[in-house]
Design goal:
The chain has 325 residues and is of the alpha+beta class. Helices cover 42% and strands 26% of the residues. Helix 5 packs across helix 6.
């Protein structure tokens, strides 16, 4: 494996290092279901003596993880609020995404489909993973690619070029050496996280939330700051006053800028951002893994009939149609 870690807990939110291991099938199955928002996990013994080991090292923005499972493990999961890259170093495995099976190759990384249910079948495997907090990777993507801090949609079926994979592997090796030994300084940890996040974005095909050309005009710099703040904090209960303060504008100035340049209001613009997030979730979600109402509430829409009407007006279909499709 590229990394390993020991049973250490530094007791700090900024850096943690942990290990879970044992020989109980039931405990292992429960741990993996809980960690990966899974359901209907099934585990059985194989010809090998069963054992499992799961380690995690890093901070809230990024963790390097390793998993060893000497047995068979199947089930389905839905990654939520994080982006995950994973590759096996031993054993066998396959993912089933949108009814298309992906056989895992040793050393070749794949991105989990965030927000979308998929199934897996793994046997006597060892695996390395990199977990990114969704908001963190989205913010790095906005800064690195000149986009807005919105949801990223990775093409899980597209195989990266060999040169890109080589750079990814080199970056992971550097990150592991920096993070897994002794606790890095906060500055070094931040730089390692950012370096790894950029490597992920450069390696795996994805789409980002594009910037409205109006926001690129120099005189609209404060308006762009407001829009970027809204995208980065769309999940939080922010107000027009919060947005104005973040952009260095008065509440009246904020209203005028949105009206003059974007022909809308800050409140309506924020609602549209949240609708985009809802659509991304519904597009990637299996119809049996959740409901439109639950996703709408998760993004702050309490009046479901108004939400449905706003969604249909913006996207030309009802949210239930998006989920079914």
């Amino acid at each position: 494996m590229l990394w390993d870690s020991s049973d250490v807990d530094h007791g700090q939110d900024s850096y943690s290092k942990s290990e879970t291991a044992g020989r109980s099938l039931d405990q292992a199955r429960a741990m993996y279901e809980d960690t990966y928002n899974g359901e209907a996990f099934r585990s059985e013994r194989t010809q090998q003596d069963f054992s499992y080991r799961y380690t995690s090292t890093g901070n809230d923005d990024m963790t390097l993880r390793s998993s060893s499972f000497l047995g068979s493990l199947q089930g389905s999961l839905v990654p939520k609020d994080e982006y995950i890259v994973a590759w096996i170093t031993d054993g066998q495995g396959a993912y089933d995404v949108d009814d298309q099976e992906l056989a895992l190759e040793k050393g070749r990384p794949l991105v989990f489909p965030t927000g979308r249910q998929f199934s897996f079948d793994m046997v006597d495997y060892r695996q390395n993973l990199v977990h990114f907090r969704a908001g963190y990777l989205e913010q790095v993507a906005a800064e690195h690619e000149g986009a807005l801090a919105g949801p990223l949609v990775f093409d899980t079926l597209k195989v990266p070029a060999e040169a890109d994979l080589a750079r990814w592997k080199q970056t992971i090796g550097t990150a592991a050496k920096s993070v897994l030994g002794s606790e890095p300084s906060p500055l070094l940890h931040a730089e390692v996280n950012r370096m790894t996040a950029i490597a992920m974005l450069d390696t795996f095909a994805h789409t980002v939330t594009q910037v409205d050309p109006v926001l690129l005009v120099p005189r609209n710099a404060r308006l762009r700051e407001a829009v970027e703040y809204m995208h980065a904090n769309a999940r939080l209960p922010i107000t027009p006053t919060d947005i104005a303060q973040a952009a260095g504008l008065s509440p009246r100035g904020l209203q005028q800028a949105f009206s003059r340049q974007l022909e809308t209001t800050p409140t309506a613009y924020l609602r549209d951002i949240r609708l985009e997030h809802v659509k991304a979730v519904l597009t990637n979600m299996h119809p049996e893994s959740g409901t439109v109402a639950a996703v709408a509430r998760d993004w702050g829409f309490t009046h479901l009939s108004r939400f449905s009407a706003s969604y249909a007006a913006k996207f030309g279909e009802y949210p239930s149609d998006t989920l079914r499709r």
